[in-house]
Amino acid sequence: MSTQDIPEENLPSEQDAGHAAVAEADAKDPFADPGLPPHEHRIQDIDERAAKRSERTVALLFTLSMVATVAFIASFVAFPVDKIVYIFPFGRISALNFSLGLTLGIALFCIGAGAVHWARTLMSDVEIADERHPIEATPEVKAKVMDDFRQGAKESGFGRRKLIRNTMFGALTLVPLSGLVLLRDLGPLPEDKLRHTLWSKGKLLVNQNTNEPLRPSDVRVGSLTFCKPEGLEEHDHDFQTQIAKAALMVVRIKPDDIKDKQQREWAHEGIVAYSKICTHVGCPISLYEQQTHHVLCPCHQSTFDLSDGARVIFGPAGHALPQLRIGVNEEGYLEALGDFEEPVGPAFWERG
Known about the structure:
Blueprint: H1 17-28, H2 43-46, H3 48-78, E1 84-87, E2 91-94, H4 95-121, H5 139-156, H6 162-174, H7 176-183, E3 205-207, E4 224-229, H8 239-246, E5 248-252, H9 261-266, E6 271-275, E7 287-289, E8 294-296, E9 303-305, E10 311-314, E11 323-324, E12 326-328, E13 334-336, H10 348-351
Antiparallel strand pairs: 1-2, 3-4, 4-5, 5-6, 6-11, 7-8, 8-9, 9-10, 12-13
Helix pairs in contact: 3-4, 3-6, 3-7
């Protein structure tokens, strides 16, 4: 459609100086650079008191970020994980989650708000246009870029305004501590719990099937009995955790068939007690061959010889099953004479 087809009343007014200038520029060069608008100074550029107020505002925001980060860490320590509080309008929520989210949000927001306020009020706002056609800059352009960078750094006041710089460094240094503290919430530290079980001197060997303490007469040659420590009950909240380390298998071997000297000393009349937890990946061992005295892990077929210190004779297991030293108390019941001499289960402890 040409301009002759447009009604005259809809055409731009020739008296409009702005439209006439644009029309003239378009007529000469449709892609002409309209240029940048005149630069207007901010109040901070002409009034040092206003600049100082902005500087204090930015420093205050960075300081609030530091305080919020410290509050984040304090909340993590102060509030128990099961504490529930009522907060309007959220209702009943976890005090720990609310405090962690609030303090971390304030810490991050204050850093961002401080950086934005610093850039908008104190850093140079002069726009610089630079045409770049070749991909690789010429030495002159590189020199100009470095000059512009140095000029921008100087105008930002980063070196001169030490209050902002120091508080910003403080805020940026403390915020990562929030992430380090969160690592503590991955779970309780194992400490040395994997190296010890519930077995101790005087603990009776309790049959897991009958829930009764064992006498030597209850264990026949060739039989396999699974035991647990006295006092551990299935309704205990940590039963699975404890039995995963303390599960015991008890077998009776003819004393003449026992090859290992220490094994014979730690047994009672041929009754030996070994950890039920496979030393490969921690599966429960449950298959016993009474003629060979071999036990087999059903997961990956690791095989142990119970007549020779429960050493590995086949499969991927890394070391022998730990033996529990046992004896008989005054009432005639089998009891432990201590804990296992080494951690049960997979050989993490051999590598650390």
